[in-house]
Predict the 3D structure of the following.
Amino acid sequence: MEVISNSSNIKRFRVNALGVNTLEAENTRKKMKKMKAFHIPDLYKSSIIGGIKESRRLQDKLKKDYTPTVLDYGAVKFLISRHFGFCYGVENAVEIAYRTIEENADKRIFLLSEMIHNPDVNADLLSRGVKFIMDTAGNQLIAWSELTSEDVVIVPAFGTTVEIQNRLSEIGINAYQYDTTCPFVEKVWNRATAIGQKDYTIVVHGKPTHEETRATFSHSKENAPTIVVKNMAQTIELAKYITGEKPAEQFYEEFAGQFSEGFNVTKDLQRIGVVNQTTMLASDTQGIADYLKQIMIQQYNIEGSDVTAYFADTRDTLCYATNDNQSATYGLLKENADLAIVAGGYNSSNTSHLVELCEQKLPTYFISSADKILSDNLISHFDLHEKVEKITKDFIPSKEQVTIMLTCGASCPDAVVESILLRLHSFFPEAEPIVV
Ligand code: SF4
């Protein structure tokens, strides 16, 4: 067993002969054991949605049933996804953030950036006096020079970079005291460390500008050359440097901003391993890992277990919530409906993938709150592809019974889903009442 440490010398990991980070596994298990009742402010809860979730949980403790919950009110029927809403990491972050505010009434409290990608939660934290140091793209809103060692800084659920951890440390602020980094994100960092320690270059499948991927990239490059690919199209281009189809010089321009300092495209793509942002689309992530593995097999003319000499044998690093929510969305889409409503922050990665899945089958409206349903025939919704909010007319068809699929991302409060449900139901006066 080997003991290693990261540059900040704060987190220590043990990696056994199989490359399994035992301390990582132990810590994640411990944290998962705490899949307990987190203390979540009442404003995020819903008796209707909470009741549905609890009843499904009791009937299906092993989470094998992905069929939706059917709420049939006659004129309108709702199909509610089996899994949605606040995940472990979000509940953990919300609990820590609100406790931090309570315990530090006399101090200035900052968040490095949005704590999670949900506008309601972020707005409420701002209304309680919390200030954001950066926006989601990493642009500085408050200069580091304005911070002092007396201030409290909360690290968001996505985690943060080694550079920012060090910056806080220089100011005299302990970056780990109010750290809401999700244990499933730390697990990705640990996996990258374990692979990097075995001399693999790390390929991170993630959105290069997303806070989590920026943090993962930063931690990964401490131990190994690292490159980020955002999708299959970029992976195919990367593979052309592995095979020599593209000249090495071109790489540095094509992947500018996505590789670690000193990356040597000729040498550093001979032995690779893939990790992912926790919230990517499972099928994309699998496709990218399979594609790169195949490229290595062809390039080095190898067979069977020999492939591990060139391609690290690991599983994806998607988190349980991403898997549950996407599987439940596939379950939802086995049914028929007239439209789907997906709720969540427009910058939420996991929510956007649920939207992508739904819109392949039926008209899908991505909304951040019930207020976006302007009337019984107008809805303001986010177009993922054009990155703009649009207004669509007559989104509810005129028919005897309208069926609506309803789900949301891992950072969306139950209260938001409830308000959407109630707003839609209110457009059907002849429908049976919702009994709470
Ligand atoms: S979506 Fe997954 S990784 Fe992100 S906070 Fe939730 S559990 Fe953690």
User: Anything to note?
Assistant: The mean pLDDT is 92. The longest strand covers residues 402-408. Residues 87-90, 157, 182, 184-185, 278-279, 319, 321-322, 350, 410 surround iron/sulfur cluster (CB under 6 Å).
